[in-house]
Design a protein that fits this description.
The chain is an alpha/beta fold. It is built from 7 helices and 7 strands, in the order αβαβαβαβααβαββ. Strands 3-2-1-4-5-7-6 form a 7-stranded mixed β-sheet, with helices on both faces. The model has no long low-confidence stretch (mean pLDDT about 90).
C-alpha cells in the first residue's frame, strides 16, 4: 500500500493547472484528506466498494461540499467520473484487492478480476474520455511489474503476475499524451504527466 503523501501535489497543481482530484479506493480517506487540504482542488471525487469503509469516509468528509464519495466498484465509477466535464485532474489510482488491506477480506478471496485488479478498466476510461491534460499516479506497480521496489517484490501467494515489462501496456496506452516515470518507493508507482 502506497501513500499519496509521497508526492508534492503543489507542483502538479501549479504546473498542470489541476482543479480536480479523482481517486479510486477511498479506504479510510487519508489520501482524500491530503488532497482536500489544497484549496485549488474545487472538485474531489472518490469511490470505495467496501460498505464499511465508504460509510466511514462519508462521515469524515460530510462537511466539505467539494467532496463526493461514491460506493461503487472503481471501473463503473471511472466510467462516470471520466465523462464529467471537469477541469484538469489528478487521478490517484489505488483500487485493488478491495478490503484486503484492512482485514475485511483476504487477498486470495474469490472475486471477479475486474473487481480485484480493475486498473485496466480505469485507465481505458480515462484515455477514452479525457483530453490528456490530467496527471495520473498509479500505486502498487509491483502487482504488474518486476522491479527493485523499496518494499520488495509482490508477496508469495498474492494474486498478480508481475513481469519484466508488465506495465508497458500502460506506458503505450498514454504514449501520445503523457511521459511515464517509474518510482521505486514503497511498492512502486507509475507517474503519468502530460507532455509539454
Amino acid at each position: 500500500m502506497g501513500s499519496l503523501m509521497r508526492f508534492r501535489l503543489d507542483e502538479f497543481i501549479e504546473k498542470n493547472h489541476l482543479q480536480t482530484f479523482v481517486e479510486t479506493g477511498t479506504a479510510r480517506g487519508d489520501s482524500l484528506a491530503y488532497a482536500a487540504a489544497r484549496p485549488e482542488f474545487l472538485h474531489l471525487m472518490s469511490c470505495e466498494i467496501e460498505p464499511l469503509l465508504a460509510a466511514g469516509a462519508c462521515c469524515r468528509f460530510n462537511e466539505d461540499p467539494r467532496v463526493m464519495i461514491v460506493r461503487a466498484d472503481s471501473g463503473l465509477f471511472m466510467q462516470m467520473a471520466s465523462k464529467l466535464d471537469l477541469p484538469p485532474a489528478l487521478f490517484w489510482l489505488d483500487a485493488h484487492y478491495p478490503g484486503a488491506g484492512f482485514g475485511l477480506k483476504d487477498y486470495g478471496d474469490a472475486m471477479p478480476e475486474t473487481i480485484r485488479l480493475p486498473l485496466g478498466r480505469e485507465l481505458e476510461q480515462i484515455r477514452r474520455n479525457r483530453a490528456g491534460l490530467d496527471v495520473i499516479i498509479i500505486d502498487d506497480l509491483r502487482i504488474y511489474e518486476l522491479g527493485d521496489w523499496e518494499d520488495g517484490p509482490l508477496p508469495e501467494g498474492t494474486p498478480g503476475e508481475p513481469t519484466e515489462n508488465g506495465a508497458d501496456w500502460i506506458r503505450y496506452l498514454f504514449s501520445e499524451t503523457h511521459n511515464a516515470y517509474t518510482i521505486v518507493r514503497d511498492q512502486g508507482y507509475l507517474l503519468l504527466v502530460p507532455k509539454g
